[in-house]
Amino acid sequence: MRSIRLPLAVATLLLAGPAFAQNDMQDLLGQAGKALDQAGRRVQQGYEDTAKAIDQAIANPQDPAYGSLATRLIRSDVLDSAQRPIGEVADFVIAPNGQVLLAIIRIGGTLGVGGRLVAADYAQLEPVLVKGHPAFVFKGDLGALPDYKVATGN
After folding, report:
1. Which of 41, 55, 72, 151 has the fewest CB atoms nearer than 10 Å to its CB?
2. Where are the beta strands (DSSP E) in 30-132?
3. Distance CA 88, CA 137 (A)
């Protein structure tokens, strides 16, 4: 009798195995579906949060708590530690992930004409409001920075 029971038990496991594997696969697919749904909700929330932040920055242009649009920062004054004007923002270098890396600053010249461009590490700039307008205090010596040259692509 013993020899009959063992093959029956093995046969039962072999036949039931695919059903167990199918249940495990369904569980895994269900978990993956839930994770994708949750990720999709997070992405959607991120888009909604970004849109809200942009709307608030536009509606509150003088309040730095809401952030600023880059177009409002171009031509902003760059100040020394005593808050005297020493240049103006000409442009920004932004990484693909959205992080501002460099501020291109015009020093010298008059009313945005002439002078020279230098690239300053954005971390050296502290945003401030001066008479209700955005400006930056530069922590360092702008004059010591090398000239910034734009590649022409030739």
Report:
1. 151
2. 77-79, 85-94, 100-107, 116-121, 125-130
3. 11
* Backbone φ, ψ for residue 22 (5° rounding): -65, -40
> Longest Cα pair distance anywhere in the chain, in angstroms?
105
Give the three-class secondary structure for 121. strand
Question: Residues 38-47: pLDDT tens digits?
Answer: 878 887 877 7
Residue 79 burial (CB count, 10 A): 19
Mean pLDDT of the chain: 77
Q: Rounded CA gap, 80 and 57, in Å?
A: 26
> Residues 108-139: pLDDT tens digits?
876 656 688 999 999 999 988 888 788 999 98
Residues of the chain with pLDDT under 50: 1-3
Instruction: Return d(Cα 88, Cα 73) in angstroms, integer.
Output: 9
* Rounded CA separation 91/17 (Å): 65
